[in-house]
Design goal:
The structure holds 2 protein chains of 2 kinds. By secondary structure, chain A is mostly helical. Chain A has a domain of 120 residues: Cytochrome Bc1 Complex, Chain D, domain 2, CATH 1.10.760.10. Chain A is built from 7 helices and 4 strands, in the order H-E-H-E-H-H-H-H-H-E-E. In chain A, strands 2-3 form a two-stranded antiparallel sheet. The termini of chain A are far apart. About 3% of the residues of chain A have low confidence. By secondary structure, chain B is of the alpha+beta class. Chain B has 2 domains: 189 residues, Oxidoreductase, molybdopterin-binding domain (Sulfite Oxidase, Chain A, domain 2, Alpha-Beta Complex); 122 residues, Immunoglobulin-like (Sandwich), CATH 2.60.40.650. In chain B, 14% of the residues lie in helices and 31% in strands. Chain B is built from 6 helices and 24 strands. Classes of the chains: A mainly alpha, B alpha+beta. The interface between A and B is large, with 47 and 59 residues. Strand 1 of chain A pairs antiparallel with strand 5 of chain B, so a sheet runs across the interface.
Chain lengths: 172, 397
């Protein structure tokens, strides 16, 4: 037993040395992370505090978005956002976005194109509400927030299937 | 160096110049017809020959195409690597920019460029291809550049992402991560943990020097064989999680319509493709010997064969593959061909180690429910050689 203990003590420093850890880099503090952690997941994880109404969203939309996406969400020089009979077949939020959380996430991280990051979280909630309303996915009097946004069922959800290609034939 | 030493250096240069001058005089006396003069001296940074002009083709400010038909071998010169960005090229300070790894890890960490360079390094050669390659074309007046120039190849150097994740200690239930860029739109993609731990790299060097700004300076993610959009440039954050994030770039964009009306999502791996780079539009050729040259590659491994047809797809013969044939890498193929001066069409098709054979446009359109093209279209491309030697691109169907 005594011999065994001695051997164990001798072996310990060698076992404790993990040569695949290099002690490089620095601890990312909760403040470091909070400054840049803006992602939102389909189950609502990551949605910030705040809320937005359709009415507020319409005002923000006309000011920030209409020049590129059209005064009513279609007919502008860039992507159509709202499904109408005139643009049937186009990949709009109503026809082709499988998760409502993606609308919030994308506007917050990337829009408006020339000044991404300039909108408040309330503005982003409001814009999301307006665009979902225009796609007839929510009623005009709905106010969206962190609790309600991820519960909206998007029509396009059932369209998306995982990749089943594995190499070889046939062509897929 | 002290100021007092500078005159000494100058004097030595003068003496060397005098010695060269004497030699020039001697040779002028003997054979004047062969007189030569020394050219410009050495310089800090070289340039291309002023008689050569080779350029990317920028399009709409958000993309530029590599001139595949004007290049040789398999490495793309760094300044001709294709570009695709979604909010311009950020100017990042390499002393301030950091990569943060957080989420389902034991210890959130952040790394500067200096930190990354201290890790054991890995260098590998592979292509990066945009899954929108082939979507932009100019009809029969398409060059290989516009048809297929959203692929480029470099020798990349960096640190395995697995090494960085190991430092932070990934938790058992983690299955996905979000890779986010530091560009204006903070472009982000969900990446399965299996790929992250397999051959993913965080790279800071391209062809032996720092990555170019348009390629992600100071560092980018590199996912060999996967659609270029997932190799997130200007990488600033990796969030480890237990589910995909369903970002815009993996839902409403970069997904493939199928014959049953559904859309295939997370079509990461680039299927095999080849493109003839000579003779092609806009070249005009003379009858006689030509070497048909091209590139082939597969995101699923090595190219095992490239077949070339010189009679519009009626019969095929194997081209020579120029080694070494690397995994997930552009591979050069060659086939000597004597053109008899009669109109014909040349085509190439790649076969990779999984047995996948590059399809025709019609085959792809049938399984993707379209009469047009979209993401992940890798059809055989034909080149119609007319009797006068002029060449047009054809969509061989």
């Amino acid at each position: 037993m005594r011999l065994f203990t001695c051997l164990l003590v001798l072996a310990m420093p060698i076992l404790a040395e993990d040569t695949s850890r290099y002690d490089l880099g620095h601890e990312a503090t909760s403040e470091d992370i909070a400054n840049i952690d803006i992602d939102v997941m389909p189950d609502g994880r990551g949605l910030p505090p705040g809320e937005g109404t359709v009415t507020n969203g319409e005002a923000v939309y006309q000011q920030q978005c209409a020049a590129c996406h059209g005064v009513s969400g279609e007919g502008g020089p860039n992507d159509a956002l709202v499904s109408t009979p005139a643009n049937a077949g186009k990949k709009t939020i109503g026809s082709h976005w499988p998760y409502a959380t993606t609308v919030f996430d994308y506007i917050r991280r990337s829009m408006p194109y020339d000044r991404p990051g300039s909108l408040s979280d309330n503005d982003v909630y409001a814009l999301t509400s307006y665009l979902l309303y225009r796609n007839q996915l929510i009623a005009r009097d709905v106010t969206l927030d962190a609790d309600s946004l991820h519960r909206i069922e998007m029509p396009a959800r059932a369209l998306f299937v995982p990749d089943d290609r594995k190499g070889g034939m046939p062509i897929k | 160096m002290t100021d007092s030493k500078k005159p000494d250096l100058k004097r030595r240069n003068l003496m060397v110049g005098a010695a060269i001058g004497t030699g020039a005089l001697l040779s002028m006396n003997s054979v004047q017809a062969n007189e030569r003069r020394p050219g410009p001296g050495s310089s800090a940074v070289g340039t291309r020959a002023d008689t050569e002009s080779v350029e990317r083709l920028p399009f709409g400010g958000v993309v530029s195409f590599t001139p595949l038909h004007e290049l040789h071998g398999t490495i793309t010169p760094s300044d001709l690597h294709f570009e695709r960005h979604h909010g311009g090229i950020p100017r990042l300070d390499p002393t301030q920019h950091e990569l943060v790894i957080h989420g389902m890890v034991a210890q959130p960490l952040k790394f500067t460029l200096g930190d990354l360079k201290r890790f054991p390094s890995v260098t590998r050669t592979c292509f990066i291809e945009c899954s929108g390659n082939y979507v932009t074309r100019f009809g029969n007046q398409s060059t290989p550049q516009i048809t297929c120039g959203l692929t480029s190849q470099s020798e990349w150097t960096g640190v395995p992402l697995a090494t960085l994740l190991h430092q932070a200690g990934v938790k058992d239930k983690a299955t996905w991560l979000l890779a986010e860029g530091g560009d204006a739109p903070l472009l982000s993609r969900s990446i399965p943990m299996a790929k992250a731990l397999d051959d993913a790299l965080v790279v800071y060097a391209q062809n032996g020097e720092a990555i170019r700004p348009e390629q992600g300076y100071p560092f980018r993610l590199l996912l060999p064989g996967w659609e270029g959009n997932t190799s997130v440039k200007w990488l600033r954050r990796i969030a480890v999680s237990d589910a995909p994030f369903m970002t815009r770039e993996e839902t409403s964009k970069y997904t493939d319509k199928l014959a049953d009306g559904n859309y295939r999502q997370f079509s990461f791996t680039m299927d095999a493709r080849s493109i003839i780079t000579y003779p092609t539009y806009p070249a005009t050729i003379e009858p006689g010997m030509h070497e048909i040259r091209g590139l082939a590659w597969s995101g699923r491994g090595r190219i095992i064969a490239v077949e070339v047809s010189t009679n519009g797809g009626q019969s095929w013969q194997k081209a020579t593959l120029q080694g070494p044939v690397l995994d997930k890498a552009h591979t050069r193929f060659n086939l000597p061909w004597r053109w008899n001066g009669k109109a014909t069409e040349i085509q190439s098709r790649a076969i990779d180690e999984t047995g996948y054979v590059q399809p025709t446009l019609k085959q792809l359109q049938a399984v993707r429910a379209t009469t047009s093209t979209n993401y992940h279209f890798n059809p055989i491309v034909g080149w119609h050689i007319k009797a006068d030697g002029s060449i047009e691109m054809t969509e061989t169907g």
